[in-house]
Amino acid sequence: MSSVMNILLVDDHSLIRDGIKSLLIVKYPKANIHEAKSGKEALSLAQSKKLDIIVLDISLPDMNGMQIAESLIADKNPAKIVMLSMYSDYDYVSSCIEIGVNGYILKNEGHEIVDAIESLAEGKAYYSTGVRDLIVNQYTQKVRKQDTAQEVVVLTNREKEVIKHVVEGKTSHEIAEMLFISARTVDTHRSNIMKKLKVKNSIALINKINELDLLG
Description:
This protein is α/β, with parallel strands linked by helices and 216 residues long. 55% of the residues lie in helices and 12% in strands.
């Protein structure tokens, strides 16, 4: 990144651009700060200027900011891109991350723009406080759903003995002789185990046992 940063602010509201610009000038008085109020202007400046960082609004009058970011990244434009948005929706954030942007800041947390620029200048991604909270909450919910969905199967010691021999391919009569119980009792245990594992045949039973590592 050049010693004198070239920064492009893309937003169709002049008040937003002025506010960000005033924050950046204090921290980077020598920076070249360019402005664009539309996607078309942003793409033109990105091609004609050697930009280091682009602060890009998602909602623009002529284009979607994500489309602009996707286009720049596809063209291998070297500028780091941080999205500036009013949308605190995980779908927007995750879409931007998938595109390959370097950060995402909520407009009501615009004061974090200086921290974002510093991080991007160091080659690090930056997400404002609200966005980080959103990502963590989404991840936490996903993990909890997975934990809730995870099957909890409890087998008795006798059932574990029976199932071990089933996996080894032994018949009910062979298992009965080894465990000193009747073949009918073995079949009853096998039936109960299949109900617990929600399977209907021996192949599915063995696959489920391995999947859940019940003998591990």
